[in-house]
Amino acid sequence: MRRFSSELGRSKVLMSRTFFKSTLIACTALLAACDGPHEQAGEKADAAAGAQQGPFDSGPSESIGEAQDRVEEDQARAVDARADAAEAKADQARETAEQKADALEKQADAIRDAGKQSAETLDKQAEAIRGKK
């Protein structure tokens, strides 16, 4: 019984080591998939130069590549932010123009109405003048 128990214990240890190794490999692969193009190139350069230290350590080229990737991401975000700001400004300009156009249309309608009333008054005066003949 003891022998079975110790063999079971060993198999659990082996299984847990295997699980740990496979998990470590999967995590490393997952982290590598998150790397940007400069970081990946730097990692390859470090590996070729023998500068790679371990699965979680970065060599100098990889670190530089990671920084370059971050700079490019930040620049892309800045460009997007400027574009968003320009779009917001364009939307505001359109809205302002619409408001001004609406106000001008109301003003034109008021001028037309005043002109019609004035014309009607003058027409009535003309009829009154003709009617007195």
Automatic annotation (TrEMBL):
Residues 67-133 have a biased composition (Basic and acidic residues). This is Putative membrane protein YqiK. Residues 38-133 are annotated as: Disordered.
